[in-house]
Specification:
With 361 residues, the protein is α/β, with parallel strands linked by helices. 47% of the residues lie in helices and 15% in strands. The strands form 2 sheets. The chain has an 8-stranded mixed β-sheet, with helices on both faces. The chain has a two-stranded antiparallel sheet with strand order 1-2.
């Protein structure tokens, strides 16, 4: 047996399990890790960009992100999700996929919403770090190298872009303050512009609920987070897809998905009204027996209006929670995929009614 001087000529070997395949590396550790991280099958970083009707600016966004990451020598892939666009966004993605080898894309059958599109992108992403950003470049691509630098220190699992306060939107501040008090999750100035470590991505994908709220669920998970302040750039092309109705629905989802306090408030309100009714009933009975009862229905009408309003409000809150339960128990897939690019690749988006993954059709 030949004895090798372990201090001088030791060859460090290790095993890597990736995508259910076992790889054996008989190379020095640092060079092996570098080779693994730059492998096309496992890029260092995946950039997930959901898009809905962003044809005018999408190619510019792709070129900008690719240029910045290439100049910094980052091994990366772009994962583009077309969320049911009707303006030619998929054609732009197809052309970009023909021009660049690092692009992978999926086209959803219809518009399922940004949350579902981000979920689809995270399922497709293969990088050890995954960055989610908007297609309109309001999330500045210039911050991508800094996000990666913070992640590479090994001290953080999440690097989150925090919006710098812009003006005083009273409704926005009121919502985030109320949301923080009800849910215990502080989302003030938070955004979807995040870098996630691979284990955070896996943990997020393992969550079973259908009512998705990406930024809230990542904050709730509690992984070590670094914050990176930024000022959103002006949208260069098109218009925002977030209507007041969609923002309202997102706000309701964020509260009902993370807190049951509104239901407890209804109980407390019921107790208060019961006490008030008992006091008012005692007063009315006393006035009746003492002969001081006042004719008229003003008090009765006001009480009926107040009580009726509270009952309708309570039913509305309960209805929101019942609607969430209804969505969850149906266990429908979050989205369906029409096609993927490149054409010759096997799609990662498989249908599983148990896990909620979609079916490629």
């Amino acid at each position: 047996m030949v004895r090798v001087n372990e201090r001088v000529n030791r060859v460090k070997c290790f095993l890597v399990l990736y995508n259910d395949r076992l790889f054996f590396h008989n190379t020095p550790i640092m060079s092996a890790v570098a080779a693994f991280s730059t492998s096309p099958a496992c890029p260092m970083c995946s950039i997930v960009i959901p898009a809905h009707c962003e044809a005018k600016g999408l190619r510019h966004a792709i070129d900008t992100v690719a240029d910045i990451l290439t100049r910094h020598g980052v091994s990366f892939e772009l994962v583009l999700i077309d969320d049911g666009s009707t303006d030619g966004s998929w054609e732009v993605i197809t052309q970009a996929c023909n021009d660049y080898p690092f692009i992978r894309a999926a086209r959803l059958t219809r518009r399922f919403g940004k949350e579902a599109a981000m979920r689809a992108g995270l399922q497709m992403a293969r990088g050890r770090a995954v960055i989610v950003m908007d297609a309109d470049l309001q999330h500045p691509p210039s911050l991508l190298p800094e996000m990666l630098r913070l992640w590479e220190t090994g001290d953080f699992d999440v690097v989150e872009g925090i919006k710098q306060p812009q003006g005083t939107n009273i409704l926005r501040r009121l919502f985030f303050t109320l949301n923080s008090k009800l849910t215990g999750v502080d989302l003030r100035e938070a955004s979807d512009f995040k870098l996630l470590n691979r284990r955070v991505v896996d943990a997020y994908l393992a969550l079973p609920e259908r009512n998705l709220f990406f930024r809230g669920m990542i904050a709730w998970s509690g992984y070590k987070t670094a914050t990176l302040p930024f000022t959103p750039d002006e949208r260069q092309h098109g218009e925002t897809q977030w209507s007041f109705r969609r923002l309202t629905r997102l706000a309701l989802t964020s509260i009902t998905s993370f807190s049951s306090i509104p239901l407890h408030l209804i109980t407390s309100l019921g107790i208060v009204f019961t006490i008030a009714a008992l006091l008012l009933g005692a007063q009315t009975l006393y006035n009746k027996l003492s002969g001081n009862a006042i004719d008229g229905f003003t008090t009765v009408i006001l009480l009926l209006l107040i009580t009726g309003s509270v009952i309708m409000l309570a039913l509305g809150v309960i209805g929101e929670y019942l609607a969430r339960i209804y969505e969850e128990v149906k266990r429908r897939p979050l989205f369906f995929v029409q096609e993927t690019l490149p054409k010759d690749q096997e799609s990662e988006l498989r249908h599983s009614r148990e896990s909620g993954n979609p079916e490629k059709i």
